[in-house]
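Structure tokens please, single chain.
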Amino acid sequence: MTNEKCYKLYWCSQTAAFAPEVLLEEGGISFQKIKIDIYKGENFSKDYLAINPAGFVPTLITPEGERISESAAIMLYLTERHQLRFAPEIGDPKRADFLDLLFFFCTTFPASTKRYYYPKRLVSEEKEVANLRAQSIEEQDRLWQIVEDRLARYGGPFLLGEDFSLIDIQLAMLVPWYPDEAGLLQTHPRVSRCFEAVAARPIAGQVMAAHGSLEIFD
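Here you go.
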């Protein structure tokens, strides 16, 4: 869409822009998607740095001109502003678990994942790169087991039971970031069930297919 008064989502495939894109589509919210190709360095262009000085995607510009640049913050903002049923309300017994996992997914997981895909930002020798990637896989395995165990709390298929929420979108985003997606889903049946439940939603499934899996870029 090109309406100047709609939301603008600065976006790139295979990034955390996936989650707010799914939410915007699922919520039926009008928005314009503006591609910023981080693999060509467009996120460090003068024009984009004026929008997001950190040079990351996503960035959401509201119709009023407000800027939000953290994926989870964008989702929570939109959910509350548009009164979408994708988060437990204050006072709901599931609210604490929801917030815990919302921030777990947007902080702990990406830190571990980036060490696998971008090791040369931290080390230079090939032996060190291999060791760092191995450590990243070990850490990711530990984190996914935590998620597998948490899914048992409410019986699934989603992390809060029958209620689809923002944290399920995050899970669906993170699964393809694991280097062996098929292996992860085979060894973590509850994660697989949740992932497939999100993929079965027509709108979310379409966005998931468009984003694909991560590749090693440096």
